Give the backbone structure.
Amino acid sequence: MKQLVRTFALVFVAAFALMILASYLNKSQGYSGGNTLTIYNWGDYIDPELLKEFEAESGMKVIYQTFDSNEAMLTKIEQGGTTFDVAIPSEYAISKMKEENLLVPIDHSKLPNLKNIDARFLNLSYDPNNQFSIPYFWGTVGIVYNPELVGDLTFDSWNDLWDPRLKNQILLLDGAREVIGMGLNSLGYSLNDTNEDHLQAALKKLSTLTPNVRAIVGDEIKMLLANEEAAVGLVWSGDASEIMDQNDKLDYKVPEEGSNLWFDSMVIPKTAKNVEGAHQFINFMLDPDHAARNAEYVGYSTPNAEALKLLPADISQDERFYPDETLTSKLEVYNNLGKKMLSHYNDLFLEFKMHSK
């Protein structure tokens, strides 16, 4: 027993010494909390030149890490093993982070460039008054299609998907909110609807779409559509832009009944060590010139009204990715439906998928 205790003590002392050494080395290399900013973002989701400019302007060292899903990001922040000063989750993840007390309130007085954000994209349901989040990029859910393969269909309406000429020609995202939401929107209902009669009506209508559904897929939807393996796909606008870059025959449409308006936003996690630096970085990214350059590099839609004025006309005037207010007024952010209702949506989607096989 004494030998075991002695061994444990030696291990503890060694671990403590390594921790002190790591801290010393980090500080000696400029990596202490006050002059280091750790950013957690999606892959290839920022112009790297902007990070260099921020370092030069602020005197801080930027440590940049990436994630590939909101769930992975949430898990890492919940575990608290790694400290992040700025993270860029989607709106539904922000709702969850608020519920779990994982976010620091944002001090708007430290963000003079916040005035540049389009008022349409502020004070939304997932974060009233933007207490915890600042919009970074936004987009929609809509339809990518190949005009050469769909005849005279224009997809001004979701109901065009039910056209019998599209038999075995549609790819759907493997997402309950997207597919059930599409069914609800096609009937004129909100994609956040919790009325059971409306949900059952949407499921019934979706079941009649199955002859046209080729497959329900994940990320491979981009490759399949670009390679013309199907004529039509239900996709996020960011993916649509990437698909169309690979195949310029394709087009993108958000149906007139309405759809999802999604946001990725900048937040400050509760465990941040450099809250002041986080505010500096957020304000830096809200600068019109920086936001415009970032939008050109990434290819997603900027919520920054002043940045939009600086973008080339072929980007800023492309209503597929910057729809006018007539359409955006019909778009909805996904509400946090709660665990019980979200589980019900998933069950309805599973029933639809089983019916589609």
In short: The chain has 14 helices and nine strands. The chain has a mean pLDDT of 90. The first helix runs from residue 2 to 28. The chain has two domains: 28-138+263-323, 139-261+333-356.
